[in-house]
Structures are given as C-alpha cells and as structure tokens.
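2024-03-11 09:14:02 INFO worker-7 job=invfold-0412 stage=load source=structure_tokens
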C-alpha cells in the first residue's frame, strides 16, 4: 500500500463467522480495483485469544496498541461478555483521539459496555433489541439497518454491513463510486441507513396466535387492493367480532387501523426507494386518490408525502432520480 493509504482496522472477537467480515472487506477491495485513486490499508486484529483448537478468522493478535487506523470496526456475532482492561483502555484512547469507531452486528456491545455509545444512535439487531436497551439505557438503540452518528458507526448485521460500507465509500469518495461498487457486487439497490430491519412476523406482532398471523399475512399480500375486515375474517374462518377482539388484545388496535398503518409504511418505503410519482405510490398502496393518500399520510407521519420525500432526500448521500411527473 502507498503511504497515503487510508487505514481501516477490523477488531474481531472469537467465533465471528466469516460473512460479516467478508461483506465489509469485499466492498473495500472492489472499490480499490475499479477506482485507481482509492487506496485502503486493511488490518485484521484478534480481540481475544481463541480457545485451543477453536476455529477463528485470520488476523494478528492485537499487540496492546490500536493506533494507526482512521477507522476501526468491532466485529462479533454474539455479544461479548466483557472487554479486557488493556483493550478497553486502548479503545477509549482511540475515541479521545477522534478515530471513527464502528460496531458491526454484536460489535456494538463492547462499545456500549465502555460507554463509547452513550448519547449516540446505534443500530441493534432485532434479536438483541430488548436486552441491549435494558442494559444500555444511555444509548439510543434503533431498529435501523445502520446508523452513522457523528464519529460512531453501527450496522445491525447481515447484508446491512455491506450497506454501511457503501455509505462509507460514498462519504469518502462520492456516491458514484458507491454505485459502481454496488453494481459490481450485483446489489439490487443501495439501502439507506434509516430503513427498518425486516423483523419476522411473530416478533413484529408479539404473538404466535395463528388467526392473527394469518390475518396479518393476508393484509401484507393485499396492499394494492385492500380487503375489508369482513373479508379477512371470512378468509381466516372467524367472525368479524372475534377478529377485532384478537387484534385489540394482541396489537391494541382494530384490524382496519393496523391495515392502514401497514399500507402507509409500505408507501413511505416506496417514497424513499423509488422514483414513482406520489399518486402512483398512493394507488399502489390502496388509496383511491392523491388527496386521500396525502391526508392519511400526514395524519400518521406528521408530514405530507412530498414533504417527507424531500426531507429524506436532502439528508441522504444517495439521490433518487425524480419522476418526470409528480402530483400529490
């Protein structure tokens, strides 16, 4: 590497699976291959000595110092129980020196344990949301794919790691390079950090009630042409009154209200991810007219679809080409 290479370190806890590291590493290596001016030095360090005979990702044991890198990502697939005192001191020293620190998957736990995420947003995998929030009340835990809050980065895990690294490339070298890397990796689209994790249905609705699950799945499959509450009740073989009682008991709302929220959230996703016109999005989410859609959207989100789209675009490093005609 040249002397001007930007050093990025990966501090890896034992038993971390290769996928998390591979996604991050591949994005950086592809960027270097397709753009001659991009130069990264990648360092791989082991946070702890592995158990004898245990498999581990490659990397040199950290030698008591972590300096020399402009960015350091902590990787773990399960929350580490503790951070060795010497390592804790080294990480705090990096934070004081202004090094950008990131937690990938359960790598947010060591940062939180050391107080290095206090007052910061952090993307936490849905499996650990309750545990993390209870243990670290000073951290603003989110269900986002990833968060970039000042000098702290976090990704919930899985493919969100790649999304975060694409955002890093966009910030360092421009959105054009991030787009080129995503094309090289056959990524369908670049996702924004603020997008929500896709939480399994049972975890989202907090219940394993079979009729409730069937009803929600039916709603999700019929967004463009919504069913009536009576039709849903008929499909899941309960009376309308029984269905309303189940929704009220487990979700604290009637079926029609839950259905409306489902369609509005889908509409917001389309607003941020596509260049479809506002009226097209409204119709595809079951609203009969532009004013009807705009009014329902404003009542739920506190802004009209147009205001929300413009605000999100201005805050995002990635632009979506506007549709040629947009009314709403």
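2024-03-11 09:14:09 INFO worker-7 stage=emit residues=328
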């Amino acid at each position: 590497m040249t002397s001007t290479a930007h050093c990025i370190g990966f501090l890896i806890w034992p038993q971390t699976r290769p996928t998390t590291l591979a996604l991050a590493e591949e994005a950086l290596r592809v960027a270097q291959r397709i753009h001659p001016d991009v130069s990264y030095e990648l360092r791989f360090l082991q946070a702890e000595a592995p158990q004898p005979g245990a498999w581990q990702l490659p990397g040199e044991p950290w030698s008591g110092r972590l300096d020399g890198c402009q960015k350091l990502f902590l990787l773990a697939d399960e929350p580490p129980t503790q951070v060795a005192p010497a390592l804790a001191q080294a990480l705090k020293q990096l934070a004081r020196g202004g090094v950008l620190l990131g937690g990938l998957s359960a790598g947010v736990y060591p940062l939180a344990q050391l107080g290095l995420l206090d007052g910061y947003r952090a993307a936490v995998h849905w499996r650990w949301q309750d545990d993390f929030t209870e243990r670290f009340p000073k951290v603003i835990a989110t269900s986002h794919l990833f968060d970039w809050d000042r000098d702290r980065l976090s990704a919930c895990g899985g493919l969100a790691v790649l999304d975060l690294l694409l955002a890093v490339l966009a910030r360092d070298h421009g959105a054009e390079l991030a787009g080129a890397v995503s094309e090289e990796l056959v990524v369908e689209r670049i996702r924004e950090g603020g997008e929500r994790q896709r939480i399994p249905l049972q975890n989202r609705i907090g219940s394993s009630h079979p009729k409730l699950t069937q009803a929600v799945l039916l709603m999700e499959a019929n967004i463009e042409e919504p069913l009536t509450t009576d039709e849903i009740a008929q499909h899941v073989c309960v009376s309308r009154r029984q269905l309303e009682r189940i929704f009220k008991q487990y979700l604290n709302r009637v079926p029609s209200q839950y259905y409306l929220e489902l369609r509005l959230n889908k509409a917001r996703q389309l607003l941020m991810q596509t260049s479809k016109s506002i009226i097209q999005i409204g119709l595809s989410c079951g609203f009969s007219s532009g004013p009807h859609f705009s009014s329902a959207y404003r009542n739920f989100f506190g802004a009209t679809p147009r205001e929300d789209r413009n605000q999100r675009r201005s805050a995002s490093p990635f632009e979506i080409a506007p549709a040629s005609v947009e009314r709403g």
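2024-03-11 09:14:09 INFO worker-7 stage=report msg="Confidence is low (pLDDT under 50) at residues 316-328."
2024-03-11 09:14:10 INFO worker-7 job finished
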